[in-house]
Write a structure and sequence with these properties.
binds pyridoxal-5'-phosphate; 30% helix; nine-stranded mixed beta sheet; TIM Barrel; Lyase, Ornithine Decarboxylase, Chain A, domain 1; 353 residues; alpha/beta; eight-stranded parallel beta sheet; 17 strands; 2 domains; elongated
């Protein structure tokens, strides 16, 4: 049979299942609810596996993602985003609540009132900034916001934060401590305003294993299902735990380097300050990818003999969530057998509204 044309994204089912099981047992051992962020995989098949292995529900970033997962039967969704709800979004949210239990993030009295006008009685979590300075309010102000949301008619169920500054070398422990302090302060602030939090939600992939179960009730890692070059280079996981790669063909040896067809249109262009290049080669950890274009990944090869033109290599994207959103399907293999066992549709691809 003809080989599948490259580049394409491939998932190793054994590694994926190992990652799912590991996070599920970590969370249940600590007494933490696991609510994985589905923006990473965007597929119904992985959502189903997460729920089967004990996840209490899923996290999503957009109404459109919530619509895709609700349609695939997910009954409990947290929209972990400071949504601005206008009439059109309100209508979509109301439709969603017919099939799923929905919770929405708020981080201002204005967004709480806008949500309440469209979806009276909606369940919300107050977003707290634990140090990333992206969205969310200061922990000490969480109670006042909870009170005003309650007055607007919302059901305030607790607090959440995203400790995204865990994406830095040697940051995991300190950032998890900041997350825990911010959530503890926010919880106390809610209580001072007469609101008893039922959900205290945190956890990025780098910080999830440091989550303080005496404060948090729930973690929301997303990337852990596949892992990526960022997790590898930050030391969060070893390369054996990487489940998703872009399969590429060596198209050229220009300049004595290896040129692959896995450019930014399949890998994404994310490159954090600490990254060694534009992704890594899973089977050749000493190789580096200093240059990328839309259809080229230029690899500095660590040995004299270059892999033959026409041969195939597996590239680990820097940021897997972005790569998945670039393709229609994921090709599923088991271990080193290249024969696909399945093909999964990236059902929530481009579901950004
Ligand atoms: C609000 C929120 N929760 C959870 C996550 C998942 O964290 P990670 O991507 O580190 O797995 C993200 C990721 O961006 C996020 O924005």
């Amino acid at each position: 049979m003809a080989e599948r044309p490259t580049p394409y994204l491939q998932v190793d089912l054994e590694v994926l299942e190992g990652n799912l099981a590991e996070m599920a047992s970590f969370a249940s051992d600590r007494g933490l609810a696991l609510r994985p962020h589905a923006k990473t995989h965007k597929t119904a098949e992985i959502a189903g596996r997460q729920l089967q292995s004990g996840a209490v529900g899923l996290t999503v970033a957009t109404v459109a993602e919530a619509e895709v997962f609700a349609a695939s039967g997910v009954a409990d969704l947290f929209l972990a985003y400071p949504l601005w709800v206008d009439a059109a979004k309100g209508e979509r949210l109301r439709a969603l609540t017919e099939n799923a239990r929905l919770t929405v993030g708020i981080d201002s009295p204005e967004s709480a009132r806008a949500l309440a006008a469209q979806l009276p009685g909606a369940s919300v979590l107050v977003e707290v900034d634990s140090g990333q300075h992206r969205s969310g309010i200061a922990a000490a102000r969480a109670g006042a916001l909870a009170e005003s949301a309650r007055r607007a008619g919302l059901d305030v169920r607790g607090v959440f934060t995203f400790p995204g500054h865990s994406y830095a070398p040697d940051a995991m422990k300190d950032v998890a401590a900041q997350e825990s302090r911010a959530l503890a302060a926010a919880t106390a602030s809610l209580r001072e305003h007469g609101v008893e939090p039922q959900v205290v939600s945190g956890g990025s992939t780098p910080s999830a294993h440091q989550a303080d179960a005496s404060v948090l009730s729930e973690v929301r890692p997303g990337v852990y299902v596949f892992n990526d070059a960022q997790q590898w280079e930050l030391g969060v996981v070893s390369p054996e735990r990487i489940a998703l790669t872009a399969v590429g063909t060596v198209v050229s040896h220009a300049g004595g380097r290896v040129v692959l067809d896995t450019g930014s249109k399949v890998l994404g262009a994310d490159r954090a300050a600490y990254a060694s290049g534009f992704g890594r080669l899973l089977d050749h950890p000493d190789a580096r990818i200093p240059l990328q274009a839309e259809h080229h990944a230029v690899v500095e090869w660590p040995h004299d003999e270059l892999p033959a033109r026409g041969s195939r290599l597996r590239v680990v994207p820097n940021h897997v969530c972005v790569a998945v959103n670039l393709v229609d399907e994921l090709v599923v293999v088991r271990g080193s057998d290249p024969e696909p066992v399945d093909v999964w549709r990236v059902a929530a691809r481009g579901a950004n509204t």
